[in-house]
Design goal:
The complex is a heterotrimer of chains A (286), B (338) and C (776). In chain A, 57% of the residues lie in helices and 6% in strands. By secondary structure, chain A is mainly alpha-helical. Chain B contains 13 helices and 12 strands. In chain B, helix 11 runs antiparallel to helix 12 (294-304). With 776 residues, chain C is an alpha+beta fold. Chain C folds into 4 domains: 27-120 and 214-306, Aldehyde oxidase/xanthine dehydrogenase, a/b hammerhead (Aldehyde Oxidoreductase, domain 3, Alpha-Beta Complex); 126-206 and 312-371, 2-Layer Sandwich (Aldehyde Oxidoreductase, domain 4); 400-439 and 615-764, Aldehyde Oxidoreductase, domain 4 (2-Layer Sandwich); 444-607, 2-Layer Sandwich (Aldehyde Oxidoreductase, domain 4). Chain C is 26% helix and 24% strand. In chain C, the strands form 7 sheets. Chain C has a 7-stranded mixed beta sheet. Classes of the chains: A mainly alpha (286), B alpha+beta (338), C alpha+beta (776).
Chain lengths: 286, 338, 776
């Protein structure tokens, strides 16, 4: 257990769970980097299938009704993403640099970034629930055919089957992982703010029993180290040249008609040809 | 596993007779080694079996680390010079009386005969939760037992707390900072450096398990005091529960240069209010060029305590610090006779 | 006794050179062939139950010889503290002891032992234990009830009971008024209602008094071994004769099986009155290991927990004053923190002290003694007058007025009073005076001495040598009565193997009173025997003979015998003269000791049967001047004078040292000494010696003065009373009153009055300190 968890002792000499072992940080970072290397090597070495440009030309010709720029992320959504990214990076930096040996006064930055992240996510949850296509991001049994098809395509087979809707399955799986890990880290992190001094409420490390605190710390630690791996993977994909169009969309808000038709299933992500609908439909567009 | 205190466990005692040998040993044993100066802080930890080093490097046999020498118009004090020797040295008495007062206020005569100036500035905090072996932040845990709704924290910090609310207990540290001293650090790796006394001390935000910038493998060999503040108008006061063998509740040290009754320049340091001695630069700036009177002192006192955040039992430190800063500027009235 | 040669004169006690040269051997200085060392495993929790002890890893270590647990100790009866326990009632209570070839091995062995503990509810603040639904210190209850029928003395056996007060009774607690629910004990005299009705001023105030550890210089170390069925034990104890039966009881053997050696004791202050229960640990370990010598040195850390402490009390006083200052009525309610064992009786003593100090026309005393999971208490030097058995004691004598007058003049009271309360710079001064009363003498103990053919008088002293000189002073009476040159007096003390008489406990300021009486009786017995021997040999009646120049001779300058001749004659005569016949009424221990000395010379042996009418109390009046720094809150004691009304002075130098030293303990309580607990875990934070802050030499004025009125007590033949304790209350009260005089009576309602307390009150113009909480 010592490899995964750390134990301390209470003033009474009882063993108490205090945290995850920071071995896990290195494990997670290693896993993230290993995935990155593996994926990059595969992409370089394998001859995985690429859609022939002619095919796309034909598709583009068939849909002159579509605007040249297909709105993908609204300004609000992009702002959310980047605020979240900034706070997440701040959180990870402030959390893990001191552990890695770079010492600085990190606590205040950490909880303030945490509050920013919490606010951003609260906004996102409300926004996504009421103003966006809530279900477009979730994963379910209905995605199994897409999973099969996408896996086959990754291995260079030209197979029929569903193409991604607005969000590719990979995106959505990643989002799901982030939801689980992020909510864990936020819930535990907010609780842990009681242990440090903030202007918000009186500091009370005795709010919960030692065992409860142990669980909270381990949750926070597990989620935190998982985020290291997830963020490494995320940043990796964001900077891959073949995924750059997606990253760019998160900056500028739109993709080209050609990218839309090449990578998405217009049946699953319906874009209306009516120029009016170029104004993003809040119910639909994000 | 049961806990037993007050019985020193076995360790290997290494007694080098030169700084070079000490550094070699430090380099060889790294973080397994414990540096022993006068032992007043060390033996507490060792006897309580809380710190369990495999090797203890006793510096008491290194003569080159002892003594007060003149240097570039100031003095250099070997880190292993006892507090008694510091107090008795004529140069310290004549030019740096504030250091004499500070060193003489530390602990008890017996402890000052054994305790060194290097040890006094490098000593660990005396937070009674931490010293009892409770696994707090400073001990590598994830809690501060001294800052909870139930803690008894009369001796703890009102400023600069970051999770940990322990304070620096040194009496000589604020005097040395007031004198603009420098700490000479030598390293097993040859990476020697000289740091300002002010920067020698660190708060929990920077490193919650250490009180100073001293890294494993590093040795504080000497303290250099420049001639700049020699013979200045000094003020040192330590408020404590009893007049000997007690740590400060708050202490203040200042060096002031005046022209007539106008303050030309000042260095002002308060200790035992935070995890590191606090030099009050804003107050120093404020008083520069002002008359040395009650009005200046009152304003300086209020300025000194800006941002103070008392805990349940240490709110008194706020007016105490304020009043000591006032006194450092305007002095204190006394009864003429008893 | 008029016209004395020794009584009232300074002298050098015979143990002094050994003490100041380091030759004196204390309990931990003894070594024996094959001696093992013991270390304690103590409870990390304030209240728990031992479920299992796994010592296998420890016992497998080379050099580890055995362990001792509570199961190896005799059962001492319900609620009685034992040296080891399976249900610790306080953190630091010993659970087991390990014996090994050295302390290092023993300590390492302790660390290898796994003790499985079940945490139980605990309480460290007595008021928390009384709150509705509050935790109890024991599974059987939270308070000591009133003494059981037939119970005698302040620590009489009591039942453990459960008493909870109501929420309404706690309603004013937050404002600092002590709740007053159901008490366990009370008494009253006079018409309280009328007293308050007639009062011109009625005050209702709550005061919190701290607990402090005794912390004698020498910890309660002991070394023991067994030989031929007898236990030989070197122990640190205040008393010798009185400790012997306790050691026997703790070890489950007969007193005759114990030889106790305690020639030097480094203080006790009441914490080692009848010895320390922990001393049976090396004895029982030794027994388990076939008699091999076992040394148990108690560390300062251990002493902090097992070394006893003063009871802390919260008192609420309603007090009515007539216009002339006379107290018309006093209604006192005390909540005593009894600690984990006991029962303690300090709350009773405090009530009696209040009645004596304030002389109210009507008074009611109500009290409750609460069990908490804090280290055990014992009387600490002046816990309030002890061992009085009436509600309004009739005192043997009191010359308080004379002492006050003497002190007022010597202290220049009026001159100092004139400038008190005036501020100069940051400093303001104040003066205070207080009366410290304390029961100061018991009666009925024995004396044993022999005048031998070598021309020397051997006085057997059964009291402890705890630093007060009374162990020697008692022989001065014998020298006086027998006109014996002091250099020819040998005091034999500190070893029951050498035969000591049944003596008082060296506690409660009893010794000087009790043992001067006993030795006066014993010396007069010896004198009478000398006179009888002379009359037998030289004719005439015994009354025709007197003693001088080491001779018993006819009054005037007539013929007689030298002491040497008389001693030889006594041995020839035998019977009562050389101790082969002893009085019936002496204690069995004295009889045993007398048997050891029978035939060695003329024996003086007697019980103190002198009459006494009233309760014996001594008084010290303390006068203090303090200076308060209003910018730091720091209080400095400027001057102090203690004036004693303690009867005839036996040893002036020692008496004045006692008045000053005792006052210092009180001054420490007023200014700085305390102990502190973390309420969440019930663990002591002031565990390091320096955190408890006993007084240091720099906390008192460079010169402190003391004096005594020196008027004899008419109810004791030598006229002398004890002095150990009265100065403590005098120093405490005088300094507290002086602080109040300097900065106002509303600045504090708890002690010690540290700078934080003063500064915060002055800064906020009202008291800011914790009103009722104990141990902060």
């Amino acid at each position: 257990m010592g490899y995964f968890l750390t134990f301390g002792h209470s003033p009474w000499g009882q063993q108490i769970l205090t945290h995850v072992s920071w071995n896990l940080l290195w494990a997670s970072a290693f896993a993230g980097v290993a995935f990155l290397v593996a994926h990059a090597s595969y992409m370089v070495l394998s001859a995985h299938r690429k859609r022939h440009p002619a095919e796309t030309d034909a598709m583009e010709a068939a849909r002159p009704d579509l605007p040249a720029r297909i709105p993908r992320h609204s300004g609000v959504a992009r702002a959310f993403h980047w605020v979240m990214a900034a706070s997440m990076l701040t959180l990870l930096t402030t959390a893990f640099l001191p552990i890695a040996g770079i010492k600085f006064a990190w606590v205040q930055w950490h909880w303030m970034a945490g509050l920013l992240l919490t606010t951003a996510i609260l906004f996102h949850v409300i926004h996504a629930s009421f103003f966006m296509d809530f279900w477009s991001i979730w994963v379910g049994p209905k995605d199994i055919p897409e999973l099969k098809a996408e896996v086959m395509r990754e291995f260079g087979h030209d197979v029929p089957g569903p193409k991604p809707g607005k969000y590719p399955l990979g995106n959505r799986l990643y989002h799901l992982a982030l939801v689980v890990v992020g909510l864990s880290v936020i819930a535990s992190g907010l609780t842990m703010m009681v242990r440090v001094r903030t202007p918000l409420f009186p500091r009370n490390p005795y709010l919960f029993a030692d065992s409860t605190w142990g669980f909270v710390y381990v949750t926070h630690g597990m989620a935190g180290v998982a985020l290291v791996g997830l963020v490494i993977a995320h940043v990796y994909f964001a900077v891959r040249p073949d995924k750059w169009w997606i990253t760019k969309a998160m900056i500028v808000g739109w993709i080209t008609r050609r990218q839309y038709l090449e990578h998405h299933d217009p049946a699953r992500w319906v874009v209306d040809g009516n120029p009016k609908s170029q104004i993003p439909n809040p119910k639909f567009q994000l | 596993m049961a806990v037993i205190r007050d019985v020193m466990p076995a360790f290997e005692l290494l007694q080098p007779t030169s700084t070079a040998d000490a550094l070699t040993l430090l380099g060889r044993y790294g973080s397994d080694a414990w540096i022993l100066a006068g032992g007043l802080d060390s033996f507490d930890w060792l006897k309580d079996r809380i710190k369990r080093p495999r090797y203890v490097i006793d510096l008491s046999g290194i003569d080159e680390l002892k003594g007060v020498r003149e240097r570039n118009g100031g003095v250099e004090i070997g880190a292993m010079t006892t507090l008694t020797d510091v107090v008795r040295h004529p140069i310290v008495r004549d030019r740096y009386a504030i250091l004499m007062d500070a060193a003489e206020s530390a602990a008890s005569p017996q402890i000052r005969n054994q305790g060194t100036i290097g040890g006094n500035v490098s000593q660990d905090t005396r937070c009674w939760y931490y010293r009892a072996g409770w696994s707090c932040y400073r001990a590598g845990g994830n809690i501060c037992y001294a800052d909870t709704p139930e803690s008894i924290n009369r001796e703890h910090a009102i400023l600069g707390a970051d999770r940990c609310v322990a304070v620096n207990p040194s009496d000589t540290a604020p005097a040395l900072i007031a004198l603009d001293a420098e700490m000479v650090l030598r390293s097993a790796s040859g990476d020697d450096r000289v740091v300002d006394a002010e920067d020698y001390f660190i708060g929990p935000g920077t490193d919650i398990t250490r009180m100073t910038v001293l890294r494993p493998g590093e040795l504080l060999t000497a303290i250099r005091i420049p001639g700049d503040w020699a013979g200045a108008r000094f003020y040192f006061e330590k408020v404590r529960d009893r007049q000997v063998w007690d740590f400060p509740l708050v202490n203040v040290a200042s060096a002031m240069v005046t022209s007539g009754e106008t303050i030309q320049n000042m260095r002002l340091v308060v200790n035992a209010v935070a995890a590191r001695p606090l030099r009050l630069v804003n107050v120093e700036q404020f008083v520069k060029g002002k008359p040395r009177n009650d009005q200046t002192a009152d304003a300086a006192g209020e300025m000194a305590i800006e941002g103070a955040q008392p805990l349940r039992f240490n709110a008194y430190k706020v007016p105490l610090m304020r009043n000591l800063v006032k006194r450092a500027i305007r002095g204190v009235g006394e009864w003429a006779t008893s | 006794m008029a016209d004395t040669k020794y009584i009232g004169q300074n002298y050098t006690p015979p143990d002094l050179v050994a003490k100041v040269t380091g030759r004196a051997r204390y309990a931990e200085d003894f070594r024996a062939e094959g001696m093992l060392f013991a270390k304690l495993l103590t409870s990390p929790m304030p209240h728990c139950r031992v479920r299992n002890i796994d010592a296998s890893a420890a016992l497998a270590m080379p050099g580890v010889k055995g362990i001792l647990t509570a199961d190896d100790l005799p059962d001492l009866g319900p609620n009685v503290e034992r040296a080891l326990t399976n249900e610790p009632f306080y953190a630091g209570e010993p659970i087991l002891a390990v014996a090994a070839v050295d302390e290092l091995t023993a300590a390492e062995a302790v660390e290898k032992i796994n003790v499985d503990l079940e945490p139980l509810p605990f309480v460290v603040d007595p008021l928390d234990a009384l709150r509705p639904g509050g935790p109890d210190a024991r599974t059987t209850g939270n308070v000591w009830g009133a003494p059981m029928p037939g119970g005698v003395g302040p620590n009489a056996a009591s039942p453990v009971k459960t008493i909870k007060w109501t929420g309404e009774q706690f309603a004013d607690a937050d404002e600092g008024r002590l709740p007053m629910g159901e008490p366990t004990e009370q008494w009253a005299y006079g018409d309280l209602d009328a007293g308050f009705g007639n009062a011109a001023l009625v005050l209702d105030e709550t005061m919190v008094v701290q607990s402090t550890g005794h912390h004698p210089m020498e910890t309660r170390s002991a070394m023991a071994y067994w030989q031929n069925g007898k236990l030989y034990i070197h122990a640190s104890t205040q008393s010798v004769a009185q400790t012997l039966p306790n050691v026997a009881r703790w070890c489950g053997i007969m007193p005759q099986q114990v030889v106790l050696i305690s020639e030097y004791t480094g203080g006790g202050f009441g914490s080692k009155g009848g010895g320390a229960v922990s001393t049976c640990i090396p004895a029982m370990l030794s027994k388990k290991l076939n008699g091999v010598p076992v040394m148990m040195r108690i560390t300062r850390e251990d002493e902090n927990y097992i070394g006893r402490a003063r009871t802390n009390m919260s008192g609420r006083t309603r007090i009515g004053f007539a216009k002339d200052g006379r107290i018309t009525a006093l209604d006192l309610f005390i909540v005593q923190d009894n600690g984990s064992y006991g029962p303690m009786g300090d709350h009773r003593s405090a009530g009696l002290a209040a009645s004596i100090i304030y002389q109210p026309q009507a008074m009611r005393w109500r009290a409750i003694s609460v069990l908490t999971n804090t280290p055990p208490r014992s009387q600490q030097r002046s816990p309030g007058p002890m061992q009085a058995n009436g509600q309004r004691a009739k005192l043997t004598s009191a010359f308080i007025v004379e002492a006050l007058d003497k002190g007022k003049q010597a202290f220049r009271w009026d001159e100092r009073k004139a400038y008190s309360g005036q501020r100069r710079g940051a400093k303001v001064r104040g003066v205070g005076v207080a009366v410290g009363p304390h029961g100061s003498g018991s009666i009925g103990f024995d004396s044993l001495m022999t005048l031998r053919p070598d021309g020397k008088l051997y006085v057997q002293s059964g009291v402890g040598n705890l630093g007060t000189h009374s162990v020697m002073d008692l022989a001065r009476v014998a020298a006086e009565v027998l006109a014996m040159p002091w250099e020819k007096v040998e005091v034999v003390w500190g070893d029951t193997g050498k035969g000591v008489p049944w003596s008082c406990l060296s506690v409660g300021s009893q010794t000087t009173h009790a043992m001067t009486r006993a030795n006066f009786a014993g010396a007069n017995d010896l004198k009478r025997k000398l006179q009888e021997i002379a009359a037998k040999d030289l004719g005439g009646s015994p009354d025709d003979y007197e003693l001088s120049n080491e001779r018993v001779h006819r009054k005037g300058a007539g013929g007689g015998l030298t002491y040497t001749q008389a001693a030889k004659r006594a041995i020839e005569l035998g019977g009562k003269y050389d101790g082969h016949e002893v009085p019936e009424d002496i204690n069995v221990m004295t009889k045993g000791a007398a048997a050891k000395h029978a035939g060695l010379g003329v024996m003086g042996v007697a019980k103190d049967n002198y009459p006494r009418n009233g309760t014996t109390y001594s008084f010290v009046i303390g006068f203090a001047e303090v200076e308060v720094d209003v910018e730091t809150g720091k209080v400095t004691l400027i001057d102090y004078l203690g004036v004693g009304d303690v009867g005839t002075v036996i040893n002036p130098r020692s008496l004045l040292a006692q008045i000053k030293g005792g006052s210092c303990l009180g001054i420490a309580h007023a200014l700085q000494q305390k102990w502190v607990f973390d309420p969440k875990y019930g663990l002591m934070l002031s565990r390091r010696f320096h955190y408890s802050k006993p007084l240091t030499i720099l906390d008192i004025p460079a010169t402190m003065n003391a004096d005594a009125v020196g008027l004899p007590d008419p109810e004791t033949p030598v006229g002398a009373r004890g002095v150990g304790e009265p100065p403590v209350g005098a120093g405490y009260g005088a300094v507290l009153n002086a602080i109040a005089d300097a900065v106002g009576v509303d600045v504090f309602r708890r002690a010690p009055v540290t700078s934080d307390l003063v500064l915060m009150s002055l800064e906020n113009k009202k008291r800011m300190h914790e009103p009722l909480r104990a141990h902060v």
